[in-house]
Amino acid sequence: MVVDLRDVMGPDGVQRIAVLAARTSSSSVTRWLGAGRLARPLPHVVVLPECAQRWRTRVVAAVLSSDGVLSHHTALSVWGLAAEADAVHVSIDARRRAPDRVRQLTVHRVTELSGTQRDGLVVTPPARTLVDAWGQANSGRRGLRYPHVARSAVITAVRDRLAGVAAIRRELDRRPQLAARAALTDLLELVAGGAHSELEIWGVQQVLDVPGLPPCRQQHRVALPHGVALLDAAWPEVRLAVELDGAAFHGSAEAREQDLRRDAALAALGWLTLRFSYRRLTREPAACRAEIAAVHRQRQGR
């Protein structure tokens, strides 16, 4: 009987040796390996050579080989919170013996292991993933050593409602020895307050705390005729809005047109909108604060 390997191996081109042997035969698997029609990148697993370098094939192979759960930076990638990296991370129950070390595969032995499904992959839940990756990024060990990747993942996950601040804090409570734990606590305070980007965090810390003015309201909602506007910062008592314009969201002509339309709709309701570019916010924070204070006093006087 002629066997179509592509059909037997599945769309990702990877399968456990035991499963493939049960569907065909052990001698067939041995023959295919010898002929180069299959490769064995990890223990207990074979892949189609033409699929071996695909990221998804490699992470599926890691799960099948370790019987674990994708975690840390690899899980960030599965959740769309970080770029795909060569090294694959999986977590297994701490009571299990860790498998022998394999190049570009890191196995973490952890307590209270949990997994969920994402795009057909077994992965740690978002809150667990964020805390694991934070510790990995700040531990100084080999692997993900870029704290800005972990920071961006936390901000994006909360902004996009992939993970709530409360859920991340509960996960953090379980990890008293986490590397840079205090920094993550501070970041969660900022995003819980409404900071949805690094630029907004900078604004909160350097610009929006204006001496002599009451605290601003972050992500303040204003009902417009054709929707709801979420203002980066607002002083509703004088109908003053401040928008922090980062290039990522406000750099295109289309985005600029949308901003102008929204500002006009707000103006029709009596709101004045001040917009500060990334360049002004980071180079002239004192001037930005002074401008906000002056406009607030003028409108308050009216």
Total of helices:
14
The overall pLDDT, averaged over residues, is 92
Strand content: 15-25%
Distance between the termini: 89 Å
Q: Helix and strand string, N-terminal first?
A: HEHHEEHEHEEEEHHHHHEEEHHEHH
What would your notes on this structure say?
The protein has 302 residues and is an alpha+beta fold. It folds into three domains: 5-53; 59-192, no CATH class; 198-301, Endonuclease, Chain A, CATH 3.40.960. Helix content is 46%, strand content 20%. It has a four-stranded mixed sheet with strand order 9-10-11-12, with helices on both faces. A three-stranded antiparallel sheet has the order 1-3-2. Strands 4-5-6 form a three-stranded mixed sheet. β9 and β10 form a beta hairpin. α6 (126-138) packs antiparallel against α7 and α8 runs antiparallel to α9 (181-192).
Layout of helices and strands:
Layout: H1 5-9, E1 14-16, H2 17-23, H3 26-34, E2 39-42, E3 45-47, H4 55-66, E4 69-70, H5 72-78, E5 88-93, E6 105-110, E7 116-118, E8 121-123, H6 126-138, H7 147-159, H8 165-173, H9 181-192, H10 198-206, E9 217-224, E10 227-235, E11 240-245, H11 247-250, H12 253-268, E12 272-277, H13 278-283, H14 285-301
Parallel strand pairs: 5-6, 11-12
Antiparallel strand pairs: 1-3, 2-3, 4-5, 7-8, 9-10, 10-11
Helix pairs in contact: 2-3, 5-6, 6-7, 6-8, 7-9, 8-9
